[in-house]
Automatic annotation (TrEMBL):
Protein name as catalogued: Glycerol-3-phosphate dehydrogenase GlpD
EC class (word): oxidoreductase
Pfam families on file: DAO (PF01266), DAO_C (PF16901)
PANTHER family per record: GLYCEROL-3-PHOSPHATE DEHYDROGENASE (PTHR11985), GLYCEROL-3-PHOSPHATE DEHYDROGENASE, MITOCHONDRIAL (PTHR11985:SF15)
Known cofactor(s): FAD
Gene field: glpD
Coiled coil region boundaries: none
Stretches assigned to the Alpha-glycerophosphate oxidase C-terminal domain: 411-511
Keywords: FAD, Flavoprotein, Oxidoreductase
EC numbers on record: 1.1.5.3
InterPro entries listed in its UniProt record: DAO_C, DAO_C_sf, FAD-dep_OxRdtase, FAD/NAD-bd_sf, G3P_DH_FAD-dep
One GO-annotated biological process of the protein: glycerol-3-phosphate catabolic process
Family membership: Belongs to the FAD-dependent glycerol-3-phosphate dehydrogenase family.
Amino acid sequence: MQRDFKQLKNRKFDVLVCGGGIYGAWTAYDAALRGLKVALVDKGDWASATSSASSKLIHGGLRYLETFNFKLVKKSLTERRMLLQTAPHRVWPLRFGIPVYKNSRIGAFRLKCGLALYDFLAGDMPKTQAHQYHSKDDFIKHFPCLDPMGLMGGFTYFDAQTDDARFVLELIDGAISAGAVCVSYCEATELIEQNGIICGAVLQDKVNDEALRIEASLVVDTTGRWSVSFQNDKGSYRLTKGIHLIMPKTVTDEALLLTAQSDGRVFFVIPWYGLTLLGTTDTNYEGDIDKVTITSEDIGYLLGEANHVLKTTHWTGQDIIGKFAGIRVLQQSQDKNPSNLSRDWALKTSPNGLLSSIGGKFTSAREDSAIIVDVLCNQLGKPSVCQTFGKTFPWLTHTDYPALLDSSLLTAEQLGIDNDSAVWLVRRHGNRITEIFQLCTENPALVKRIRPELPFIMADFVFCAKNEMTIHLEDLLRRRIPLLILAKLSPDEFNRLANNAAAILSWDADKTQAEIAGCLQNQDIDWDFEK
Ligand SMILES: Cc1cc2nc3c(=O)[nH]c(=O)nc-3n(C[C@H](O)[C@H](O)[C@H](O)COP(=O)(O)OP(=O)(O)OC[C@H]3O[C@@H](n4cnc5c(N)ncnc54)[C@H](O)[C@@H]3O)c2cc1C
């Protein structure tokens, strides 16, 4: 994957997709597979906004059953099922536990009914995936971190997890292979109209500071929270903020769905690259959409609620390893409580023909994007059917996933890569893992982990820097390999990684310093001075 702004020049496109989060990625991929001439641009890195700040769940959303949104749950569960088959490296099973305490807001009977409905809406599933009730002793064996006081038992149920930023990247790579021109750090600054109808846009190359007028028969706005300014339409939707904290390891292979004591909201404790992802919040947001900040109230809420139910933690701010914030775009409603607002997706057509994707979920973005592409094809007079349903993911040409996993683990062992890192390598790269093995064969020093507690090896770092359209240091250290989120790096470690990246990307000393400064400016880094 290489960035090439020149490819946008002197061509007329059928479709220009603005915004390379999950909605833009699926739209560009499906449209390119259907034979349209597609350009996809993002003003930053791929998935640099909400699509790398989600809870990383591919799920139906158990809690939406409480608001009777069965349609959304069913749709998402259908997608979950398909993704587990078409992308077993990208989407993997994750079992959740829900403890039942004496004073739980939702008692065991209601929970049992909800989980039975959740399983039913998921369609045919193996018995092993169905929800289960566990006695108190058994449940504590699954989750020794829980406070046993008042615990009566608990349920476990099936859902799935992903790495959201890599999910988007893989689709962008697929779109490029299908013929789309995909350029990051390229902002659509103005829409061009002819007789009141959009016929292109002005694009600003943010790497070489060059502007370009691009012709496109149709333009799709998948800019997420920036849609408001893009369409010049205030008022039809509402923004809410959700934050996550990365905490030390608490759960192993199973996650927890917990209920907050203070307001009855649900929040998650999820295993993530060997650590814990704690989230999320849901508060109305009216601040700067370009710089979303995490407040001490956000942090206090999550730590307080977690400490309330996790007896082994007593977490303080000192224990926070990393943090990130995302913004939900929700349809406007009179309801004051953000958690009650619908997560439904909508496609809006403006009088000038601009198609805007509003709201939605990471899990169901494929199906929603297929609707966008249906509309595009109809308007272009090229009706066609969706190409992404049931299609194996771009980085999985190997159809027998268990065989790929087994053979990869064996090769990894022979090369001296530890088992945990090898499992994550398969998840992160699919069958491209052979290229990582090649790097390790050429230079055995690359089998070493970057940090002892994280399953990333140096060969992964080298591969991502070289092959994954890494433009800035932050792209590499935050989304390709999220070290800035998953570790408290020491200044020495950070500089060493920056210099490694510089050597791979042929940056001179000035450029490297500028990248370091840029990265530090955008990051809220907690340095680990003990290292
Ligand atoms: C806290 C939180 C947790 C969530 N957890 C889950 C979950 O576990 N599972 C799930 O299914 N869903 C989850 N969601 C929902 C999901 O993350 C979002 O629905 C999804 O990521 C939105 O994707 P998007 O493509 O619409 O927007 P974004 O990812 O925000 O992408 C918009 C892109 O447009 C670009 N852009 C903006 N303006 C321009 C311009 N002028 N020119 C070019 N590019 C531009 C931006 O740089 C950005 O990359 C969560 C959401 C939040 C906030």
